[in-house]
DNA sequence: GCGACAG
DNA sequence: ATCTTGTCGC
């Protein structure tokens, strides 16, 4: 099992970013997608111990039937720092990944992929760490702005542009709801990423794998709280 | 110096 | 990210 060493300080994480970002593959390098997974983390608002509860939920890509889930809790890592989210969440996420009953062909990560100032959002870091295709699905913008109009119609899209480059796509998955921001994580092109996010939707704002992972991560946190009481 | 800032 | 009831709207 190839283990990766994660930086312990923000400074070390920043130094490592260019090297890791260079490993990201922004093109389609994936086989048939039969199973997918959602990945998310849950933390406490104010927590000096910096505990992160992570969860991954695997599902059948076609029927969206859940196939299993796993969680992991890590403490003492980095705090939340914009731009360094991956270094905080990927260690517990990678452990959760190893607890899944199956190895998913594709992972939807809660947060950005290449739509990041140094091209290393949490989805990219998880992808290169596990060497699994990943897609970033974020609920708000980290950098860049939407180019053009985004009609209030389900399916509407508009490029997310930063420094004259398209780094992702704003996608309105539901009428009357704010868009989600889709970007390449690893081994998936942006058009393919968009297609999968749409295919894995269920008429709600967030795609099903992401939604289930969010609920699972919350359960991991509540279970940890109950266990320590 | 000021404002922005995934989760 | 999390704390939370009722409430507005299709």
Secondary-structure map:
Elements: H1 10-21, E1 35-43, E2 52-60, E3 66-74, H2 85-98, E4 106-110, H3 122-130, E5 134-138, E6 145-146, E7 157-162, E8 165-171, E9 180-186, H4 190-199, H5 208-227
Parallel strand pairs: 1-4, 4-5
Antiparallel strand pairs: 1-2, 2-3, 5-9, 6-7, 7-8, 8-9
Helix pairs in contact: 2-3
This protein binds two DNA strands through strand 1 and helix 2.
Structural summary, described in words:
This protein has a single domain, classed as archaeoglobus fulgidus dsm 4304 superfamily (archaeoglobus fulgidus dsm 4304 fold), CATH 3.30.2170. It has 5 helices and 9 strands. The longest helix has 20 residues, at 208-227. It has helices spanning 10-21, 85-98, 122-130, 190-199, 208-227; strands at 35-43, 52-60, 66-74, 106-110, 134-138, 145-146, 157-162, 165-171, 180-186. A hairpin with a 5-residue loop joins strand 2 and strand 3 (66-74). Strands 3-2-1-4-5-9-8-7-6 form a 9-stranded mixed beta sheet, with helices on both faces. The protein is globular and about 50 Å long. The protein is an alpha+beta fold and 229 residues long. The chain binds 2 DNA strands through residues 40-47, 80-83, 85-86, 88-89, 110-112, 115-116, 121-122, 136, 138-143, 175-176, 181, 218. This is Endonuclease V. Mg(2+) binds at residues 40, 110. Keywords: Cytoplasm, DNA damage, DNA repair, Endonuclease, Hydrolase, Magnesium, Metal-binding, Nuclease.
């Amino acid at each position: 099992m190839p283990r990766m060493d994660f930086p312990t300080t923000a400074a070390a994480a920043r130094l490592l970013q260019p090297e890791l970002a260079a490993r990201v593959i922004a093109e389609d390098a994936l086989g048939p997608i039969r199973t997918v997974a959602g990945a998310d983390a849950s933390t406490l608002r104010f927590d000096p111990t910096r505990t992160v509860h992570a969860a991954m939920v695997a599902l059948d890509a076609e029927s969206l039937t859940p196939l299993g889930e796993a969680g992991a809790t890590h403490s003492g890592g980095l705090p939340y720092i914009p731009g360094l989210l991956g270094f905080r969440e990927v260690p517990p996420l990678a452990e959760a990944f190893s607890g899944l009953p199956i190895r998913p062909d594709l992972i939807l990560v809660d947060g950005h992929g290449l739509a990041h100032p140094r091209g290393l959002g949490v989805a990219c870091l998880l992808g290169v760490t596990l060497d699994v295709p990943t897609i970033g699905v974020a609920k708000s913008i980290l950098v860049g702005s939407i180019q053009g109009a985004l009609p209030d119609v389900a399916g509407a899209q508009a490029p997310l542009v930063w420094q004259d480059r398209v780094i992702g796509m704003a996608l309105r998955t539901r009428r009357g709801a704010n868009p989600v921001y889709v970007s390449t994580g690893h081994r998936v092109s942006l058009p393919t990423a968009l297609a999968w996010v749409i295919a894995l939707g269920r008429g709600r704002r967030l795609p099903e794998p992401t939604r289930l992972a969010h609920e699972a991560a919350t359960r991991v946190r509540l279970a940890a709280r109950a266990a320590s009481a």
